[in-house]
Design goal:
Elements lengths: L1 H47 L3 H11 L8 H25 L4 H21 L7 H26 L6 H21 L4 H13 L3 H18 L8 H16 L2 H24 L5 H29 L2
């Protein structure tokens, strides 16, 4: 009888211990959630004070365990972390810190992801306006960063390692732009430049063609002579990838036509000084000459 009672006593003790442990963890949950919410709010306050790096660090910590936070806190936390990353990128373009390349590539991807998470946890659209404004600024800064990387990836004399790094970075910048704006011809152009640098010539041709397709939908009213280089690459790759002489020559002809149209836009703008228009005219003539040079090269290779 003694042993039976002792067994039941031990069994009850074990059950009680388990119950106490479970209750202890349950009691800790609100405390942990409160602590995380407090850190998120500190991050939002840092953002409001213009402390972008501090805001990102605090929000990284506060959002580490999303399951502990309510939807309102998650929406505000993700939105402000994304906004802080955008502000950081804008400022970094002026200051150019040593780790700019790494941070630019990381934040360009994660800021867009954070905006999408904020939208997910904000079904009533209370943060719609700041998110929309943040996405607009993110797209603009990514286009600028992609332009910088594009200039580098096309630079003569760049080492293979640097070229690969710049190409990877350029591709990273282009991806979220296209998610935000699938009609953006510059983003297709940047992606094509990155793939070209990676020796993915078929992929590059596909995206140069997409840049051509969407150019008239998203081209600036003030003209863009840079589109001439797109047609140079299309002509080159139609011959290089497909050995399609007719398609290459068609790209040459279209390139001259579009380039002349863009030059006309620039020259007809009333708000440009004569000296500025003259510099654009020189640029137009240089690009037109490069189109002619590509035509001659392809004809020579084709034996025409």
């Amino acid at each position: 009888m003694y042993f039976v009672l002792l067994f039941h006593f031990n069994l009850l003790s074990v059950k009680n211990a388990v119950l106490v442990t479970i209750l202890w963890f349950i009691c800790l949950l609100p405390t942990a959630a409160f602590a995380q919410t407090k850190v998120v709010n500190e991050g939002i306050k840092a953002y409001q004070n213009g402390q972008w790096a501090e805001a990102i660090a605090a929000l990284d910590e506060g959002l580490a365990d999303p399951a502990a936070l309510n939807e309102k806190t998650l929406a505000e936390g993700y939105a402000h972390r994304a906004l802080a990353k955008v502000r950081f990128l804008i400022q970094a373009r002026l200051d150019m810190p040593e780790n700019m390349e790494q941070l630019g590539e990381e934040y360009s991807l994660t800021a867009y992801d954070d905006f999408k998470r904020a939208q997910k946890y904000d079904p009533k659209g209370k943060l719609e306006e700041p998110i929309a404004e943040g996405l607009r600024k993110l797209k603009n800064v990514l286009l600028e960063l992609a332009g910088d990387a594009g200039n580098q990836v096309n630079r003569i004399g760049l080492s293979p390692e640097d070229k690969a790094r710049q190409a990877r970075q350029l591709k990273a910048y282009a991806a979220p732009i296209l998610e935000m704006d699938k009609y953006n011809y510059k983003a297709y152009d940047f992606l094509a430049d990155a793939l070209y640098a990676m020796d993915d010539f078929a992929g590059a041709l596909k995206n140069y063609r997409l840049a051509d397709d969407w150019f008239f939908r998203s081209a600036p009213r003030g003209g863009d002579l840079g589109i001439g280089y797109t047609y140079i690459r299309i002509a080159e790759l139609e011959w290089r990838v497909n050995r399609d002489f007719a398609a290459a020559m068609a790209a040459i002809q279209e390139g001259h036509k579009v380039l002349a149209g863009e030059d006309k836009k620039i020259q007809n703008l009333g708000n440009r000084r004569p000296a500025e228009k003259a510099s654009f005219q020189v640029m137009y003539e240089e690009i037109a000459a490069k189109i002619d040079k590509m035509e001659a090269t392809i004809k020579a290779k084709a034996g025409k």
